[in-house]
Design a protein that fits this description.
There is one protein chain. Helices cover 32% and strands 22% of the residues. It is α/β, with parallel strands linked by helices and 257 residues long. Helix 1 (55-71) runs parallel beside helix 2 (93-107) and helix 2 packs parallel to helix 3 (125-131).
Length: 257
């Protein structure tokens, strides 16, 4: 499922409420620094050179939509950067965040701004600083065991610099100004079974959370069709059990089953 517009929605998000989406990638391709086996947008589109929207195009389209919604008296909880891949790949990401904050303040001052990021570019100063400006800096952390992490998230180009240790150290730099988001599922990919809900996986994940100290943790499971079919939707009671263990360590946890 690809998003065929730069500004899409609003839609009802399981975790964020009434959300107006911003897609900073092409409308006809999936481009990401991960190639996750569970992504609702499917696998990455190979050798794609379609243009991405410019900063001005994003600003103009967002202002038009916010003007329309405000004029119609529509409710809005959040403006969310999501779409067809990793939003921080956009070269003008930091400037687009500044524009979005200004437009939010003008039209929907009580709405939050959220970024759904896979955490792969948080070592870039302009990305790091931009993420610190938004209300909900939501960063992916699916497993604290390298083998599972690589199998689930599949960094593009076989990037071996991306490890659990690398992610943990860079997530710690936010000093708690982040939300960790974790997908829980089990299944098989290319003949290899995995399960990030085992106690070994959960214990390693909890220890990583202790190091990162996020202000909130979001856990969820698959909700839509996935490119890999051998994946299991985790029952709500299992998710709640994992959440209870995180809450016991002092974390605020939301669950979307």
């Amino acid at each position: 499922m690809l998003f065929n517009q730069t500004i899409f929605g609003p839609v009802h998000s399981r975790r964020l409420g009434i959300s107006l989406g911003i897609n900073l990638l092409p409308v006809d391709a999936k481009i990401c620094s991960y190639n996750c086996i569970y992504c609702e947008c499917g696998f990455n589109t190979p050798m794609h050179e379609a243009p991405v929207p410019t900063r001005e195009e994003v600003r103009t389209a967002l202002e038009s939509r916010l003007q329309q919604m405000s004029g119609n008296g529509e409710h809005l909880d959040v403006i969310t950067f999501a779409g067809n891949g990793e939003p921080t790949l956009h070269a003008e990401f930091a400037g687009i965040i500044d524009d979005t904050i200004a437009l939010r303040n003008r039209y929907y001052p009580t709405a939050k701004i959220s970024v759904l990021s896979n955490s792969t570019r948080i070592d870039r100063p302009h990305v790091f600083e931009a993420l610190l400006k938004v209300d909900n800096n939501i960063l992916k952390f699916d497993s604290a065991i390298d083998h599972t992490y690589r199998l689930m998230n599949r960094p593009t180009g076989g990037d071996r610099s991306l490890t659990v240790a690398w992610l943990t150290e860079h997530l710690k730099r936010f000093n708690g100004a982040l939300i960790v988001q974790t997908m829980f599922t089990r299944g098989a990919f290319e003949g290899e079974a995995f399960d990030n809900t085992t106690q070994q996986e959960v214990d390693a994940w909890l220890d990583a959370l202790d190091a990162i100290r996020p202000r909130q943790v979001m856990i969820y499971t698959i909700d839509r069709e996935t490119p890999v079919k051998q994946l299991v939707r985790i029952p709500l009671d299992e998710l709640e059990s994992i959440a209870a263990q995180a809450r016991a360590r002092g974390f605020e946890v939301s669950v979307a089953g």
